Amino acid sequence: MADHSVEITEGCRLPVLRKNQVNEDEWPLAEILSVKDIQGKKLYYVHYIDFNKRLDEWVTPDRLDIKKLQFPKKEAKTPMKDGLPGSRPSSPERDVLILQKRKAESVSLATQVTAATPVPSLPSSTEASQASVYPAMRDSSFSIKSRDEHEPLTSLTTNGTTSIQRHLIPPQPGRKRKSCGGTDEMVKMFQNNSPRCSTIYLLPGEDSQDSSDGIPSAPRMTGSLVSDRSHDDIVTRMKNIDCIELGRHRLKPWYFSPYPQELTSLLILYLCEFCLKYLKSLKCLQRHLTKCNLRHPPGNEIYRKGTISFFEIDGRKNKAYSQNLCLLAKCFLDHKTLYYDTDPFLFYVMTEYDSKGFHIVGYFSKEKESTEDYNVACILTLPPYQRRGYGKLLIEFSYELSKVEGKTGTPEKPLSDLGLLSYRSYWSQTILEILMDLKSENGERPQITINEISEITSVKKEDVISTLQYLNLINYYKGQYILTLSEDIVEGHERAMQKRHLRIDPKCLHFTPKDWSKRGKW
Q1: In 16-104, which ranges are E strands?
Q2: Of 412, 444, 455, 494, which residue is the catalytic one?
Q3: ∠ Cα 24 384 235 (to 5°)
Q4: Alpha-carbon dihedral angle through residues 359, 362, 368, 369, given to the nearest 10 degrees
Q5: Mean pLDDT along residues 350-354
Q6: Which of 309, 360, 317, 363 is nearest to 336 (CA)?
Q7: From CA 507, how far away is CA 260, in angstroms rounded?
Q8: How do beta strands 357-367 and 345-354 pair?
Q9: Residue 491: its pLDDT value, please?
Q10: Catalytic status, residue 31
Q11: What is the pLDDT of residues 180-223, one digit of tens each?
């Protein structure tokens, strides 16, 4: 369908032929991100609008519908104010902000001039972009923003929790809504006429550990490995590795990963499945395997049951392995950024054992010290092992570690689409398991608080509340907040638990938490 008389450039949009999940032809709108010429034949790298980036691909001209080509629109010039080019129309709020900013700048400038301190030159946007994409190129004087610099975003998120609390209970027509007394409500359960349906009463508690207004603080949207997306450019938007061979598997990467530039032109990138070292040819891999003594990830094996093992790896002691693991993981994680400084992190690698060794299945990383109670920074199940229950096993293991540490935990946000699905499923099954196991004592309805659910599961209270919202369990009835477990929810939970064969056995966990705050530089 391509008309060669029309030049298709980067930024153009047009329908592109692709196969959907049921192998049927469809023509979604796509944007051209790059064009390359191989032996006189043009190839176009396209991103399907409203589709995940992992579906981006190189396509041939015959898959393009040139009749519906949309050329990139020129950016409209900003209206001028007071004859100054590029100035936006004024508003009272903006004028006040500009005035405050100018005052702050004048004070800062006066201080610098008085002190006669030399002002270091700031890196250009190109240099900053390269520093984030290729961490090895970063200058020692260039530092990543600290968490304190992100505090305005945190306060905005925290203030926004009011809307979360307000939507916790659906509004009842013709009835005034009463305020809910914090997150530490008393839960009462009794059986309805149907033996497969139960109702839980939420009564205000007196020992709430939350803020005075009863509003739980929302989890931060910034974290150690969360990408701020400020350096997204045409390079990082495109996959740069075609194929990875890892042991007996060949993997097609989903996203960009900052492997060395000279490796991006290879048809296949070879990885040692035990030390994760990357090599450019099969011959190099074979030569490496004669010298590589590893048959399992470096570090301590802290869990083993059947063929499943978990290894704890210190990002400072095993830096090369940790960096190689991050490079591999970035091929399948889009919402996380990558730094070569792995010192502040612990990596927990899940493996499957056979006669040849311990083969990596997936992993999660966590900060040695987290002020926000994060128990996971990045989490990944490799594609050959997905949809087999390993993702939920990784999540369950992360919460088992939190139980041993005596803390509640939550994953860093934002989660990827697949990560969010896995966590929602795990939280739902874990909370429903507890609610359905409650038994009455002395003929009275069983009682439990949200704090107690959080303590039993080590799931943070905000995640407990969001899960109850997601399941649509909370209702307002006769002046009380109740959780209603319908027959459909009970049956769905039982079906899901029957399929969940892989579980963590706490008896097989040999883990002693360390107090990293007393260990100096770890």
Answers
A1: 18-19, 25-26, 29-38, 41-48, 57-59
A2: 412
A3: 75
A4: -170
A5: 96
A6: 363
A7: 43
A8: antiparallel
A9: 92
A10: no
A11: 444 444 444 443 434 455 666 555 543 434 433 334 444 444 44
